[in-house]
C-alpha cells in the first residue's frame, strides 16, 4: 500500500513542471490539505525540489538524490527497486537480496555511491557520490545453456548504449569488448555479469549485472585518471536516466537468447578489425579481432587460426578506432 507521501509524489510527477493547487491534489487523492502539505514537507526533506506559490500551488522540479519511487514511476514499476545513499557495492546488495528469494524476479538496486564497488577481476570501481550512476539488476536466467552467457553482458551494454546515445546525442560512444563503454579513448562506464548458481541443479538461477557510469565526475584517482573519463560536465537527472536504462535492459532481456542486438553491438565495437591483446589470467594473446560471435564471444585471428573467447579482457588495441 502506498503512503501518503508516495501518492502525493506520483500526483506531482504526473504533471511535472506544471502548477497544481493544494486543493486539487487533496481532492484528487481524497486527502486533507494538511496531509498534502505534510507530504510536500517530507518530500522536500528527502531532497525533492518542489516550488510553491500562493496563487498557483505546487510544482515539481526534480530530485538531486536517487529515489526509488521516482525511478519506479518512470520505469512503470517494471521491477522491484531499492535505492540507498551509500553501499559497499550494489552487486553485494543484489546478491544478498537474491539469497532470500524463493522465486526469482527482476529487481534493481541503485546507490548514490559505492565504498567498495568492483568490476571484472575484482578491481575497484571508483564510485564517488552524486556524480555517477551505480546499480545492479537481478535477471532470472532464461538462457538454454551457459555457453550463451556472453549475450547477457553484450546485450546489457547495447541497451545502455542506446539510452546514452539518446541522452547525449553529440557524444561518440563505443563499446570495447566485452564490458566497457567508451567515449573516445576514455572509459566512461563498465558492466559486470555474475551468475548465481543453484547448488542442487548446478545451473544458474539468475544473473546479477552491475553497471557503473561516470556521468559528470570531475576528478579521478591518479591510478586511473589517464584511462577514465566522464560523459558530460552538465547536471544529469539521474532518476529519469536510471529509469530509462532499467526499462531498456529489461526489454532487451526478454529476447536476449536470440542475440538480435548483436548487429548494434558490432557497429559500436572499438576493437573489430584491429590488432588487440587479450588478457586471460596471466596469459596474453595478441591477434586481430575478426568478429563478435553469435554467443557474444570475441573471435581472434592468430597464427594458429581463428579462436572464439568467451572470457578475458582486451587490454590493448593497436589504434584508437574512434579517431
Summed up:
The chain is α+β, with helices and mostly antiparallel strands and 323 residues long. The chain has helices at 4-14, 22-29, 33-45, 68-74, 90-98, 150-167, 238-253, 262-268, and strands at residues 48-53, 57-63, 80-87, 107-114, 132-140, 173-176, 180-183, 186-198, 203-214, 275-280, 283-292, 298-302, 305-309, 313-317.
What does this entry look like structurally?
It comes from Lacticaseibacillus baoqingensis. Pfam families: BPL_C, BPL_LplA_LipB, HTH_11. Keywords: ATP-binding, Biotin, DNA-binding, Ligase, Nucleotide-binding, Repressor, Transcription, Transcription regulation. Belongs to the biotin--protein ligase family. It catalyses: biotin + L-lysyl-[protein] + ATP = N(6)-biotinyl-L-lysyl-[protein] + AMP + diphosphate + H(+). This protein has 323 residues and is an alpha+beta fold. The protein folds into three domains: 59 residues, Winged helix-like DNA-binding domain superfamily/Winged helix DNA-binding domain (Arc Repressor Mutant, subunit A); 201 residues, Bira Bifunctional Protein, Domain 2 (BirA Bifunctional Protein, domain 2, 2-Layer Sandwich); 43 residues, SH3 type barrels (Roll). The protein is built from eight helices and 14 strands. The strands form three sheets. The chain has a seven-stranded mixed β-sheet, sandwiched between helices. Helix 2 crosses helix 3 and helix 4 packs across helix 7. The termini are far apart.
